[in-house]
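Re: the 232-residue chain
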Amino acid sequence: MVKLHRHANSLKIGILFILSVATLYNFIQVKHLSSLPTITLSAIEKIENELTSATLTIGQNTADNQQLSGLISSIEALSQQQFAAIQAELSQSTQTANHRIDAIDTKIEAHDSILQQLKESVRSLEAIKISSAKVPLETPPAIKQNPLLNKSRPSLKPKLPFVLTGIELRGGNAVAVVAPNTFNQLAQLSHIAIGQQSIDGWVLTNLSSRSATFQRGRQKITTSLISQESSQ
């Protein structure tokens, strides 16, 4: 719109310049050379000034038109650059989206393959289950129980690996004197206080005037002096 307005002004000035020249020419033709002195100097200067002003205006309009053309060219170049950048970015985004879509399609195909394999496995298991249901199950023969096995076996009572040979007082406390079952000398005698461990892990837990009680784990045995023993 600005460019058209500039061209219209230039056209008007050009027409004005042509009309001024034509008017001057007609005026000279009418007056002939004899009437030339009647033309005043101020009129001629006025016409020259108008022509000069019109010429300057035309030159200024031409410079403005060139500047406007350069500005329009710059805007067009910038628009083309922006359009090219947007187009390149859009192309890159499209390629990235296509790659992602291809990757998703590949995963879907792999999942479909696995799902198909699972379905085939389920069908095979169902077929095996149906075949197994058609085969009659054989009843295992009854196991006869031996009546001799039902008899409770007598529990074996543990036996102490030592004998109680005596009970003594030492420091005001009673201690048990024990010896191995096959002892043959006094050096094999041991003095055991309550809470102490004797031979083979047996611990003295109780002591009376004629007997002593020993315990190992859950087993507990009360033995008397020399050979008289009773279990508890």
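Residues 2-97 form one domain.
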